[in-house]
Design a protein that fits this description.
Strand content: 15-25%
Shape: globular
Distance between the termini: 30 Å
Bound molecules: 2-succinylbenzoate, magnesium ion
Helix content: 25-40%
Radius of gyration: 20 Å
Structural class: alpha/beta
């Protein structure tokens, strides 16, 4: 990563937007039907006095069901604590902004969104693409899709067939007790042995479920994601010893240091890297790097992002350690219309890595204004 010039922070605006999902998305922690998304817009002023705008997307959901953060809380901590701390140092860049927020515990999604907006503006001001900033040279990445829990196996199979027809190269099924073995068996039968398949339990099982989960070994899954509660690192290590299917952590991984520990304990055979969950793209890169050193395959998770977060995720996922397809599906997987003019599309199962200056998207200002519910200056 190249070193960047420093800037003065100008205006900061927090926007909330309302976006319906094209279909309900059910996981073991709840059902999402509409998104209430917090966006961060910053202005950075460079040494010549010219101003560049940047955007960040906070991945906190409306309720604290996936992680402790939620969108109203994220906005509150930004306004009350994080933004005042970032304003303090005078000259900043994205890494400096994150350092200025580090003494506050937790709130990685809120911190990550602020860092993201500053990083976007910083890169745009020097006409640098995020891919060039990271030194990533891959032009396209494989696209995986996350499929919610369905009430019946027939409806699940119809949905999965649609995604296979769309070209997705990897299917991820959300599972929970009662919607697991039978669903996985039916989908494996539908897609055949050659299409990559994995499952995500979002913490729905307990340590005593090892024998039950070992039944998944029959279906040649790439991995099982976060079977146990996020704090149960030892439980995941025990499951990793019991199951042939590799254990992948999502919710448990909130920092590079914690990821290194989980790997050392044998709890993390594969890592799902979500920039928002770990406090931003810069920490995500550190986790990528340490996983590469430890021989742990990584892939890029998703949080139902708009074209802002999806573009940056696609670029992150073009780093060489991302050897498994990520949850980087087309914009149309979740949204009828996106807030960017260049939404992610999939062609032959691949997503083109954005190379425009900044984090790789351009805002559709008219549509954004139309779906904005509140705007708050900070
Ligand atoms: O656990 O990976 C998850 C969405 C919201 C919260 C948690 C998760 C997910 C997904 C969606 O699986 C993946 C995507 O954005 O495509
Ligand atoms: Mg997950």
């Amino acid at each position: 990563m190249s070193s960047a010039p420093t800037f003065t922070l100008g205006a900061i605006e927090l926007r909330r937007i309302a976006l319906p999902l094209v279909a309900p998305f059910r996981t073991s922690f709840g059902v999402e039907t509409d998104r209430d998304i917090l966006l961060v817009r910053v202005e950075l002023i460079d040494s010549d006095g010219s101003t560049t705008e940047g955007w960040g997307e906070c991945v906190a959901l409306a309720k604290p069901t996936y992680s402790p953060e939620y969108v109203d809380g994220a906005q509150h901590v930004m306004l009350s604590h994080l933004i005042p701390a970032v304003r303090h140092p005078g000259l900043i860049d994205a890494a400096g902004a994150t350092r200025a927020m580090a003494h506050f515990h937790g709130h990685p999604m809120a911190k990550g969104a602020i860092e993201m907006a500053i990083l976007d503006a910083q890169l745009r001001s020097t006409s640098t693409s995020f891919a060039d900033f990271l030194g990533a040279t891959t032009l396209t990445i494989p696209s995986g899709v996350s499929v919610g829990i369905h009430g019946t196996v027939d409806s699940l199979l119809a949905t999965v067939q649609g995604y296979v027809d769309d070209g997705y190269v990897r299917i991820k099924l959300k599972i929970e007790p009662g919607s697991d073995i039978e669903h996985v068996a039916a989908v494996r039968d539908l897609i055949g042995p050659d299409t990559r398949l994995q499952v995500d339990a979002n913490t729905a099982y307990r340590r005593t479920d090892g024998a039950h989960l070992a039944r998944l070994d029959a279906y040649d899954l790439l991995l099982i994601e976060q079977p146990l509660p996020e704090a149960d690192i030892i439980g995941h290590a025990q499951l990793a010893a019991e199951l042939d299917t590799p254990i992948c952590l999502d919710e448990s991984l909130v920092s590079a240091a914690g990821t290194a520990d989980a790997i050392a304990l044998g709890a993390c055979e594969i890592a799902n890297i979500k920039p928002g969950r770990v406090g931003g793209y810069l920490e995500a890169v550190r986790i990528h790097d340490l996983c590469v050193s430890a021989g742990i395959p990584v892939w890029c998770g998703g949080m139902l992002e708009t074209g802002i977060g999806r573009a940056a995720n696609a670029i992150l996922a073009s780093l060489p350690g991302f050897t498994l397809p990520g949850d980087i599906s087309a914009s149309t997987r979740f949204y009828a219309q996106d807030i960017v003019t260049d939404p992610i599309t999939i062609s032959d199962g691949q997503v083109t890595v954005p190379r425009s200056p900044g984090l790789g998207f351009d805002i559709d200002q008219a549509f954004l204004d139309q779906i904005t519910t509140t705007t708050t200056s900070a």
